[in-house]
Amino acid sequence: MKAFITVIGHDTVGVVARVSGLCSELNINIEDVTQSILQGMFAMIMLVDITKCNVSHEELHQKMNALAAEMGMQINLTRQEVFDAMHTI
Predict the structure, then answer these.
(1) For the segment 64-85, what is each residue's pLDDT rounded down to a tens digit?
(2) Whole-model pTM?
(3) How many other β-carbons are positioned within 10 Å of the β-carbon of residue 36?
(4) Nearest Cα to Cα of residue 33 among 3, 71, 67
(5) Which residue has the higher pLDDT, 89 or 14?
(6) Pfam families annotated for this entry (predicted)?
(7) Which of 33, 11, 19 is nearest to 68 (CA)?
């Protein structure tokens, strides 16, 4: 199952490392990533495969929220099927 992870907040050292480290810890494969710094704000979108994630969806969201709080950033995880359903005409 594919998902998107979005990260937004003030640019700081180690954002990519911390998010990708959590993905590695949870056995989430990063398939594609794009990032930009816009007037001091960091923005990143990752396409990930959560098929082999070693925690429940609920725990995955809890861990992402905890990391976001630690970093003072916003992190969202959206399963691709949810995203596709929102954009089906």
Answers:
(1) 999 999 999 999 999 877 656 6
(2) 0.88
(3) 10
(4) 3
(5) 14
(6) ACT_6
(7) 19
